[in-house]
Specification:
The protein is an alpha/beta fold and 608 residues long. Helix content is 64%, strand content 11%. It folds into two domains: 345 residues, ABC transporter type 1, transmembrane domain (ABC transporter transmembrane region fold, Up-down Bundle), CATH 1.20.1560; 240 residues, P-loop containing nucleotide triphosphate hydrolases (Rossmann fold), CATH 3.40.50.300. The two termini are 65 Å apart.
């Protein structure tokens, strides 16, 4: 219920449409009720021709209303005849049904912006939350499952809950007004309705709870299915090179079969609610007809036949909204399982955020300092990745980080833009703790070129100008020239407007990397982080990219994570790391003369 109320909270933004929807639904129900109560006068005109009616004082009683209408009708018959009266009542019923359906359409007309607006707002909230969640969150989640929550789970809410909003807004009004009218018509018969309908509701509610549990399992399994598809598409080259097609096929079929079995259970439970509600409604109707018939046939006519028939007509129209409400309840239960999965994203903590007193800092002036920095990905200090790091990078200097894989080089660089927050020590920029600087300003000081070029399925121009919507075309082209990318871009079919495909799949590795460098050049950051930017390239591409990097590093403070030591020999200081600690530091020739770990790494690459 909490998750459902939370979803309905999104409707507050559309309260104007909601008010109009409720107003139109009330009018629709009133006209529907009025058209049904016309059954009694219609029967009186046909079968009770000699009855004499006297006006009664006005009160909130169906009996009084019917009596006074019959009084008016008897005078109408006396003046115009029965056929004319029958025509009048028939026309009145047609008018009531027209107004009923007109306002029903208007209610749905005003509901459409609510349904689609809430789903849009929910998608926006999820996407915005994912943009700001820390990287540590994604290391514990499967990408495919997150995609399933943003696609199939949101779609499930649209189908199951949003489509039920109209029913949930309208049917309680219908049931309330119909039941009130039935109580005014015959309290005795209404007592059976109040006793028997809740029994049916309890049975259907049990099905709904079971449906919710099964739906949660099926949505989780859909996440596994999407994860498997995403991994397959990303790893097709490996699957084929290891001839693992049969293994991958069998794995997918097993996941798909589990999803199929869950969905079969889900549909069987969901489809049971509608026939069960209809059967229970029919049972209640028969019981009401039986006891109502006894009241009509009893001495003294405790219930007039025409009123009894009108009562049955109203009750028969009470079953469809009650059935629709139970169907909506089942759908809501199914959708709430998706809402729970979505809320796990919306409720996740954003641990890296601006402090209340965070300061603006848009210029880098003196130095970067790592003071006694220790870091572990798991809070509590298990498995230290960095241990007691002391490092100062002065403005305009190039610092290279080298060492074996897993020595902490990338982690050391990732702490600077606050991709992760440290527990011990501090990192200072111009003497200010980076946690006291606004995140937008902090990251605005930095440009990052990583080993894997992160490009988007868009044009070359938009990839270079990414995050800089006000960049001019001349600036983009100049950045490409500095990155040695302009020539190959101009040879492409549409030049800078050529789409580069998913993750830049239409470009070579060297071309992708030079596009990434051009993006960094255009940003023109004072601090540059290069994370093994040339390690995955061939010799020719590496030469071009290295030349572009040299241009990019000019007059900038640079932190270089290097795999190939030949690319960092001119660094102002080389930091050698091992198991999260700095074990050697100095210029290239100093470290070679020291004949330590760096010399051994250098010799290994020289003879390879």
């Amino acid at each position: 219920m909490k998750n459902y109320l939370r979803l309905l909270g999104l409707v507050r933004s559309y309260k104007g449409y909601a008010a109009l929807n409720i107003f139109c639904n009330i009018l629709s129900v009133v006209f529907s009720l009025f058209s049904l109560t016309m059954v009694a006068p219609f029967l009186n005109v046909l079968f009770n021709q000699d009855a004499v009616y006297q006006p009664m004082p006005w009160s909130y009683s169906v009996k009084v209303l019917l009596n006074n209408f019959n009084y008016f009708l008897s005078h109408y018959i006396a003046e115009y005849g029965q056929l004319q009266a029958l025509t009048f009542i028939s026309g009145l019923v047609v008018l009531m049904f027209f107004l009923k359906n007109l306002f029903r359409y208007l209610a749905m007309y005003f509901m459409a912006p609510i349904r689609n607006g809430v789903v849009r707002d929910l998608r926006n909230k999820m996407y915005e939350k994912i943009l700001y969640l820390p990287f540590s969150y994604f290391s514990n989640e499967r990408k495919g499952d997150l995609m399933a929550r943003m696609t199939s789970d949101v779609q499930e809410i649209e189908w199951s809950i949003m489509q039920s909003l109209e029913v949930i807004f309208r049917e309680p009004i219908t049931v309330t007004l119909f039941l009130t009218t039935m109580v005014l018509m015959s309290p005795q018969l209404s007592l059976f309705v109040f006793i028997l309908l809740p029994v049916a509701g309890v049975l259907i509610g049990q099905i709904g709870k079971s449906l919710r549990r099964t739906s949660g399992k099926s949505q989780a399994q859909m996440g596994n299915l999407i994860s498997n598809i995403e991994e397959t598409l990303g790893g097709l080259r490996i699957i084929r090179s290891f001839t693992a097609e049969v293994f991958s096929r069998d794995k997918f079929r097993a996941i798909n079969d589990r999803y199929r079995n869950l969905m079969i259970r889900l549909y069987r439970k969901r489809d049971l609610s509608s026939p069960l509600s209809e059967f229970m409604g029919a049972v209640v109707l028969v019981i009401v007809m039986y006891f109502g018939g006894r009241l009509v046939l009893s001495p003294g006519h405790a219930l007039e036949p025409s009123v009894f028939i009108a009562f049955i007509a109203i009750f028969s129209q009470l079953i469809p909204p009650a059935k629709a409400f139970t169907d909506a309840y089942s759908n809501v239960q199914k959708g709430l399982a998706s809402a729970e999965r979505i809320n796990k994203i919306l409720d996740a903590d954003i641990t890296i955020r601006d402090r209340e007193q965070a300061r603006s800092h848009q210029q880098f002036q003196t130095a970067i300092e790592y003071n006694n920095v220790s870091f572990a990905y798991q809070r509590g200090g298990e498995g230290w990745v960095l241990k007691d790091i002391h490092l100062k990078v002065e403005k305009g200097k190039t610092i290279a980080l080298v060492g074996q894989s897993g020595s902490g080089k990338t982690t050391l660089a990732d702490l600077l833009p606050r991709f992760y927050d440290i527990e011990i020590g501090s990192i200072l920029i111009d003497g200010h703790d980076i946690r006291d600087i606004k995140l937008h300003d902090l990251r605005g000081l930095m440009g990052i070129v990583s080993q894997e070029s992160i490009l988007f399925n868009d044009s070359v121009y938009n990839n270079i100008a990414f995050g800089m919507p006000n960049a001019r075309e001349e600036e983009v082209m100049e950045a490409a020239r500095i990155a040695h990318a302009h020539d190959f871009i101009m040879q492409m079919p549409e030049g800078y407007q050529t789409n580069i495909g998913d993750r830049g799949s239409r470009l070579s590795g060297g071309q992708r990397q030079r596009i990434s460098i051009a993006r960094a050049v255009l940003k023109n950051p004072p601090i540059l982080i290069l994370d093994e930017a040339t390690s995955a390239l061939d010799t020719e591409s590496e030469r071009l990219v290295q030349d572009a990097l040299t241009r990019l590093m000019k007059n900038r403070t640079t932190l270089v994570i290097a795999h190939r030591l030949s690319t960092i020999q001119h660094a102002d200081e080389i930091i050698v790391m091992q198991q999260g600690e700095i074990i050697e530091r100095g210029r290239h020739h100093e470290l070679v003369e020291r004949n330590g770990v760096y010399k051994r790494l250098y010799d290994l690459q020289s003879f390879s």
